[in-house]
């Protein structure tokens, strides 16, 4: 149980550091690199971190709020979180709202549901 708590604390700290950097209190690239490295170490998909930053940029929210949006989409469409993240990150057409409005509509709907 203690090891799990330590892992959760490290993930929370990495997410908090990324949020703070996103809000101008640090280097986003450095915080993202740290979060990705921690994910790889723990066997979590690092591309989820990239998807969080992509959504945060497009939707003007923090990376933590972007993660909540990814979870909402994942649950609403019964898709694995990593698959939703991969659809955003790996396919260049999904990175532009004009090129792939459906995925960005899903993100916007999920964002509205979070309010």
Characterise the protein shown here.
The chain has 6 helices and no strands. With 115 residues, it is an all-alpha fold. The protein has one domain (2-114). Helix 2 (28-42) runs antiparallel to helix 3 (47-59), helix 3 (47-59) crosses helix 5 and helix 4 packs across helix 5. The protein is globular, with a radius of gyration of 14 Å. The relative contact order is 0.11.
Number of helices: 6
Mean pLDDT: 77
Spans where pLDDT lies below 50 across 5 or more residues: none
- What's the count of strands? 0
Structural class: mainly alpha
Hey, roughly how much beta strand do the residues contain?
Answer: under 5%
Query: What's the story with the biggest beta sheet?
Result: none
What is the helix fraction of residues, given as a range? over 70%
- Tally of separate domains: 1
Radius of gyration equals 14 Å
State the separation between the terminal residues, measured CA to CA.
33 Å
Principal-axes shape call: globular
Helix/strand order, N-terminal first: HHHHHH
């Amino acid at each position: 149980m203690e090891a799990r708590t330590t892992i959760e604390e490290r993930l929370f700290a990495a997410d908090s550091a990324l949020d703070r950097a996103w809000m101008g209190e640090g280097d986003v690239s450095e915080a993202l690199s740290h979060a990705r490295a921690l994910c790889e170490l723990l066997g979590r998909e690092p591309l989820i971190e990239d998807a969080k930053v992509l959504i945060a940029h497009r939707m003007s929210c923090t990376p933590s709020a972007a993660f909540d949006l990814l979870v909402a989409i994942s649950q609403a469409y019964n898709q694995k979180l990593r698959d939703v993240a991969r659809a955003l990150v790996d396919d260049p057409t999904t990175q532009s709202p004009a090129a792939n409005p459906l995925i960005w509509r899903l993100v916007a709907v999920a964002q509205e549901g979070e309010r």
